[in-house]
Each structure stands twice: as C-alpha cells, then as structure tokens.
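Side project, low priority. Logging it here so it doesn't get lost.
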Amino acid sequence: MPGERPSADVVVIGAGVIGSSIALELAREGHRVVVLDRAAGAGQGSTSASSAIVRFNFSTTAGVATAWEAHFGWLDWAGHLGHDVGDLAVFRKSGLVMLDVEAAPRASWLPLFDEIGVPYEEWDSATLAERVPGIDVGRYWPPKRLDDWTPIYDRTELDGFYVAIGTSGNQFKNAPVVGQLMTELINQVENGLDHDAVPIRFRAPRTGLEINLGAFSRRRNRNSANSGTVMG
C-alpha cells in the first residue's frame, strides 16, 4: 500500500557483487530481504571498477575450495541465477599466469591445487616467453606486504549483524558461493549455533568439497602461510 514501510527479515547493506549474492541466497531460503545501497542501482559502487578476476590461488584450503566451487557458478551463470541475463554479465575464460615469487611461492598453493583438484601447468621462463609474447621474464622486487588478505565472512559481536568484508578485487572470484556461505552461517547462528566455538562446515553443492568457515572468521589466528599480498 502507498506510504507503508516495507518489512523484512534481513537487511543487506551494499548491492555490489557480494551483497547481491547474499541477498539472492537469503531470498531463495524464504527470507524477506531488503538491500540498501547509496548508489542508484546494483553494482554501481566499487564492484563496477573491479578487475573481476576469477582465480584460485590462495594460501588456505578453504580459500582455494571456495574459489573453485564458485567458478562453476560463473561457468553456468544463467543456471546459477535461474535466469538468462544475456550479455549483461559474461564469464570469459582467458587462463591465468602466476609467477613464482617469494611473496607467494608456488609451494604455498600448488599442494592445495592438488588437494582440491584444480588443474594447472608449470612453465619455465622460456615457455613463459613463448606462450605470452612480449612479457618481460625478469625479476622486480619487493611488493608491498600487508598482514592478512583473507576476507571475513562471519557474524559480529552484535547479535543479528553479519559481515562479508575485506574482499580483495571485490571477490568476483567467490561471489557465486559467498551468498550460500553467508546464508548457511546466518541460518545456523540464528538457530542457536555458536559458530565461534564450533565453526560451520559447508558442503559445496557443485564440487562436494567441505569448506571450513572458521577460515574466514573474524577471530581466526593469522595465517602464517599468508603471502601478505592480494594473493592471499
């Protein structure tokens, strides 16, 4: 009715790629969802300026498993949404070259690729120069380091408030599955689970992988294997 205030079970603040994913999955679970954003429409904030890279190299099992699960959503974007959006959002597979550097050595994430089942090739500098014409295969150092690039998908100290923050590149790589993670977390915590004491383990529907959401906890111990860069 005109003049009535909309009612909701859940208010999602931010209509970017992460907020929209969370809102979608909560609505699918039957929640009445309202999404708020200071911009005029969805995805018009930092999401619109993101490089939107989908990659899998992280320093934790949960990070790699989440990104690998999410990429199947990008591959079947219309199926994931349950609606064909045409050319509005298109996932283009281009491949990704990762350099073996001290800040994020391949030894820190290739074993996780093997564990999760992410396919890859290893190239020497000659192969790199041949496969990527024009690339400079020299070394340039050092990059700027930060303490921890792993995002936080968690509850807060204030009951009923949850966050999906600290997401490098606006987390296009994880977007199709973050809504599912947060919906599972919200439902279980609101039904009495102490996620801080017993972290939720999410069973990924496409890959069957188990993702320990404790890896994204606000209270987690700093991951000593973290590269200190955007590579996680």
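Brief comment: The chain has a mean pLDDT of 88.
Revisit when time allows.
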